[in-house]
Amino acid sequence: MSEDCLFCKIASGEMNADMVMENDQVLAFRDINPQAPTHVLVIPRAHIPTLNDLTPDNATVISEMYLAAQEIARQEGISEAGYRTVFNCNSAAGQTVFHLHLHVLGGRQLDWPPG
Ligand code: AMP
Ligand code: ZN
Fold first, then answer.
1. Nearest atom in ligand 1 to 6's CA
2. d(C-alpha 97, C-alpha 41), whole Å
3. Which domain covers residue 36, as residue numbers?
């Protein structure tokens, strides 16, 4: 846990979020500023700041995050219509919270390429 990290606070229960699922490795909650009818963030319980901080020792959490995304899409009823998963890494990509998170977006037609 990192002291000043918003998502660590959500993971520890110190801050509230609209929780969608959780297990021992990851949790998922609705984005506070949704960009689509379904906009869920999947995060590892462990504090990993960005994609650049993945190592062979912690990278297995990525498969847990994608399995969670798949389950969330099924729960939200968007699996077959389609959905998008996005990692933003650092400022040029628009990362604003420096605790690794996977955006799961769906429920409408999503533009491609993104802006
Ligand atoms: P990123 O721009 O990839 O770093 O995404 C960070 C996301 O976190 C944004 O889409 C924010 O709307 C979202 N966010 C920030 N604070 C909260 C919060 N307290 N609960 C849920 N989502 C949040
Ligand atoms: Zn954190």
1. 19
2. 11
3. 6-106
Side by side, which strands form the sheet with 38-44? 19-22, 26-30, 38-44, 102-106, 83-86
Q: Give pLDDT tens digits for 15-44.
A: 999 999 999 999 999 999 999 999 999 999
Report how many domains make up the chain: 1
Global pTM value: 0.98
Per-residue pLDDT tens over the stretch 9-23: 999 999 999 999 999
Domain assignment of residue 44, yes or no? yes
Mutate which of 27, 30, 32, 101 for ligand 1 pocket (most atoms within 8 A of beta carbon): 32
CA 67–ligand 1 middle distance (angstroms)? 21
Ligand of minimum distance to the alpha carbon of 14: 1
